[in-house]
């Protein structure tokens, strides 16, 4: 039976020791999430996998929900880093259709994100509710950044002008998350077997482009908007990293 990590919990523990222990707990939680699913995993299971006591887990994360929300935030931070790199390399990647394609491909290859997003809707809804309750200020920052992103695209003529950008943002997320959540139910209607990830990514990009973006392929608007969008996503990445550190309670 694992014992509390006394060298890391005592007053003599260094910041590096506490951080390393929190990362070990998060790694264990991520592994169990992928293997068993969120609903089956308990804090005791995580403690055993991380080789610490149950109480030690709670020294870092007050609840199971906060533990797994932090696991998800680590995955989101990695995705944001890749998005920012893509924006800098090619300003056209800031378009919502490109963003949807890239996000879909990243979710497809990230077992943590897939375990969260493709788990049962009740669990995902519960985690979102917990996030709003436990991470209210952080969640508001995320919403504010994405709102700013859509307004920036609207101001630069990248979105259809007749619909308010706030409504376009809501539509984007409903299309994206709805597309992912419906995967298990729609696999049965496929007539061709094999890996459809690339085709699906292009299809969701097409849907977003047709429903939200202004027609035309002039590269100038995206180039003009890209610096502001990069700044917005960099601020979001910084805030995600800050929230992860806060939840680790190191």
Automatic annotation (TrEMBL):
Q: Which PROSITE patterns match?
A: HTH_TETR_1, HTH_TETR_2
Q: Keywords, A to Z? A: DNA-binding, Transcription, Transcription regulation
May I ask which residue range the UniProt record assigns to the signal sequence? Answer: none
Q: Which InterPro entries match?
A: DNA-bd_HTH_TetR-type_CS, Homeodomain-like_sf, HTH-type_TetR-like_transc_reg, HTH_TetR
Per the record, DNA-binding region residues lie at: 42-61
> Where in the numbering of this chain does the HTH tetR-type domain appear?
19-79
Q: Which domain of life is it from?
A: Bacteria
Q: Name one Pfam family in it.
A: TetR_N
Report the GO molecular function annotations. DNA-binding transcription factor activity; transcription cis-regulatory region binding
Cross-referenced PANTHER family:
HTH-TYPE TRANSCRIPTIONAL REGULATOR BETI (PTHR30055:SF234), HTH-TYPE TRANSCRIPTIONAL REGULATOR RUTR (PTHR30055)
Q: What is this protein called?
A: HTH tetR-type domain-containing protein
